[in-house]
Amino acid sequence: MACPRCKSLALVEVALGQTKVCECTGCHGLWVDAATFDNICTDRERQSVVLGSASEMFKPGERSIEMKIQYLRCPACRQLMQRVNFAKCSGVIVDLCKGHGSWFDRDELQHIVEFIRTGGLDLARTKEKAELEAARRRLEAARRDQYIPMDREPIHGTWTFGETDLFDIAGSIFDCIRSDND
Question: pTM for this structure?
């Protein structure tokens, strides 16, 4: 596979402890398949190895941010990868191919491991649960405040009404029109 950043250099398989990843010898980016990345995120021993293999220039908490946004192609399928903020709040933008894996520019994997080990992933999950609960409460409040009874089921995206409902609606519209004309 060719490096998605350098495009011309081949990726070389390297071992981080028992974890195998592919590295570009030019830009020192890493290609990590999806299953391996999941293992790194959940296994503290693998995280220690990743942090232990950090480049000499790696400084925890310090990230260089590239100002020019560039979408990279997956080295496996050549499709454009998605750029995602890991855990929606880490500040580390990762290039992701859902079917194959993730591309980490130099030291990004170490920053993600640092984020996980300092409790960032747990905080992100707590925040997401709170946001889901708030959305659930807003939905319930909106259902209580709606004019149309919620015991009616939508059919193909529309609501079904009984004959008396239609007369009530028509009467309300007629009252509005009549009051505008008075």
Answer: 0.63
